[in-house]
Amino acid sequence: MAPIVLCLPGNVSAFRVTLALLLLLSLLLHPISAGHDYHDALRKSILFFEGQRSGKLPPDQRLKWRRDSALHDGSTAGVDLTGGYYDAGDNIKFGFPMAFTTTLLAWSVIDFGRTMGSELKNTVRAVKWGTDYLLKATAVPDVVFVQVGDPYSDHNCWERPEDMDTSRAVYKIDKNHPGSDVAGETAAALAAASIVFRSRDPAYSRLLLNRAVRVFEFADRHRGAYSASLRSAVCPFYCDVNGFQDELLWGAAWLHKASRRRVYREYIVRNEVVLRAGDTINEFGWDNKHAGINVLISKEVLMGKADYFHSFKQNADEFICSILPGLSHPQVQYSPGGLIFKPGGSNMQHVTSLSFLLLAYSNYLSHANKVVPCVQTSASPAFLKQLAKRQVDYILGDNPLMMSYMVGYGARYPQRIHHRGSSLPSVQVHPAHIGCKAGSRYFLSPNPNPNLLVGAVVGGPNSSDAFPDSRPFFQESEPTTYINAPLIILLIIMYSSSNPNGYNKYASEQLHHHDGPPTGIPVSSSTEPYFSTSHDQDSHSHSHHPYSHSQVPPHLRPRAPVPWSSGLCDCFSDPKNCCITCWCPCITFGQIAEIVDKGSTSCGASGALYTLITCVTGCPCFYSCFYRSKMRQQYALEESPCNDCLLHCFCEFCALCQEYRHLQSRGFDMAIGWHGNIEERNREVAMTPVPPVVEQGMSRDK
Ligand SMILES: *[C@@H]1O[C@H](CO)[C@@H](O)[C@H](O)[C@H]1NC(C)=O
Predict the structure, then answer these.
(1) Do 645 and 621 form a contact (C-beta atoms < 8 A)?
(2) Which of 289, 319, 541, 627 has the fewest CB atoms within 10 Å, counting from its CB?
(3) pLDDT over 70 (residue 27)
(4) Atom of ligand 1 nearest to the CA of 465
(5) Beta strands per DSSP E along 356-485
(6) What's the pLDDT at 573?
């Protein structure tokens, strides 16, 4: 600054101009979007989990204002249930979201541990804090302790966890009170964590895997939702609204990844339809695993290792297409400031979990050199990454309020989060007990919280980007473990792709770890972990890649539709089908409909409805053309030579024959229906050699 003063003494307006130019220059050199310190945000978001710890804190606890709490949890049931995490701003240990959080933390280490740098060990510790508790909760065979603490008495108090004197009732599921949801998720968490500890602590890893196997068997054998028998304790807090089917598939998917046992692969293929893998696929959270299952399993499809899971990739593609912005009927809304918004409270959980899937899928796609074919467009991995980055940057402060929604990050962040421990004075400052109702004045106080829960990300702004920063507005101001868990992966990737040297620096330290299962994608095996172009034709220059970051504007590319396997008028290439279709189109139509509906309607039922519509209206084409559209969407086929309904009305037989032949070309035996084809694939699966399994993992726990 000195030279300016020397050159321009007294000339105030020239001084201002120069200052403005300098400011502009510094902005150009440090664009705002590059201003986020993702590594700092990553470090903080992991630190948050230490603030949520329950039980006896270890000597290396970094968040010092917290102390030991809930040291007698489980004693009323004669078991040890100390430890684990409080789910949010209260002092209850809810097993369902805790298991989900642990699964995601483990997933982040499995896929991205090598790029976490110095934060790897803290994340592994965060996983272990969860699994140590889950092992206690599953120590008794065919029982899972799913919750500690009576949520009503807890929610009526504003007390530090260290002071807690409300009921620590223990809730469990067993053979007569099943809970496949929470048990399936617990099995998933244990299985995922067993991969994390495979090389770090083999004995612990085996213990986790054995336990996961046992808990999954229990979940599958005694099916049901835990909110049926525990309704008054778990609802409306963590009620299983979505059903337990997704957790069974999710648990099997993680067990398959962890054990490589054929039985889990067969379980997934066999139960895909029964357990509704394709349902409500634009959701991912503690209650709904559908989109996560599809993305997780697609990784293997994209690696060309598991073609029998192809439908999961189709589901994952559909999920990605459903959350892209700018669609005429978007299933996911965006706030004016650009934040993903789903109504229902604690919106940020959707932001981080959906962005996490966008990014994980983008990573798998770019390794396979693929794009997502949507109906009118296709989305490149670079585009998906950019979408996710936009969400992360919003959370860190690029939003209309210029507010970071992570406590302790940036210049402006929430001061009055809905969190008991953070808002009450710490034990060190105020050693005396603060009772249930005595805490109310801290809850209602307009003052900022005295203890920083560093790294906590709150529920976030409402759909118009407004944020009250007030404790009573818990939907906006409460942090939760399952908001932060997916965010960790987002921050790792943002960090490592904004700073390739960061990866180099830590890579050598981590090379001896082998986290991924044998078929895993070697994520981050290059110096530029995210946009790996090792599969590209031209790996020297990103700008030559058709979907590179530099060429694709933040906009969807027009899709390149796939042509049909045969022409419309090639009916006579299959005379038998041609004759059957001419004689009784209902048969061909029924066969097509069964496959397109993935077995949820039968050939007979669709054929009969088709016949009925023919008899009543004489125009079955309006029914059958709907299936052509659905099929085109599934296979990204071109709409040719004209509109689906026009085509069906013009030549019903030609259209049906063409669809039939196309499904045949995709490997379906049209004579045996959807379930026949699945069984056929199961048999093929059973005959293909499987990679060696982890032998120790197979023995049952005592
Ligand atoms: C969001 O919050 C602001 C301020 O509290 C309020 O004025 C606005 O109406 C809210 N928007 C919605 C959609 O609820």
Answers:
(1) yes
(2) 541
(3) no
(4) 1
(5) 372-373, 377-379
(6) 85
* d(C-alpha 71, C-alpha 364), whole Å: 43
381-404 per-position pLDDT tens digit: 999 999 999 999 999 999 999 999
Pairing of strands 372-373, 340-341: unpaired
Whether 478 is a known active-site residue: answer yes
Query: For the chain, which residues make up each domain, given as ranges?
Result: 49-240, 244-322, 324-417+453-560, 564-686
User: SS3 for 637?
Assistant: strand
* Cα–Cα separations (whole angstroms), residue 313 to 293, 295, 301: 10, 7, 7
What is the 3-class SS of 559-591, one letter each residue?
Answer: CCCECCCCCCCCHHHCHHHHHHHHHCHHHHHHH
Of 482, 419, 655, which is closest to residue 95 (Cα–Cα)? 482
pLDDT tens column, 496-552: 887 654 433 332 222 223 333 222 222 222 222 222 222 322 223 322 222 222 222
Tell me, using a 6 A CB cutoff, whether residue 466 lines ligand 1: yes
Active site residue 675: no
Give the three-state DSSP class for 461. Answer: coil
The CA distance from 270 to 248, in Å, is 12
> What is the pTM assigned to this prediction?
0.71
Q: Which amino acid is at 493?
A: I
Determine the Cα–Cα distance for residues 585 and 555; give it in Å rounded to an integer.
43
Ligand 1 atom at shortest distance from the alpha carbon of 464: 11
Q: Tell the residue nearest (CA) to atom 3 of ligand 1.
A: 466
Do 164 and 70 meet the contact criterion of CB atoms below 8 Å apart? yes
| Bridge partners (DSSP) listed for residue 172 | 145
> Encoding tokens for residue 690?
């499987």
Q: Which of 339, 463, 464, 477 for a ligand 1 pocket mutation test, highest count of atoms within 8 Å of Cβ?
A: 464
49-240: CATH class? mainly alpha
- Is residue 463 within 6 Å of ligand 1 at its C-beta? yes
No. of helices (H) and no. of strands (E), the chain: 28, 8
Report whether residue 338 contacts ligand 1, using a CB cutoff of 6 Å. Answer: no
pLDDT tens per residue, range 560-577 = 567 888 888 888 888 888
3-state secondary structure of 341: strand
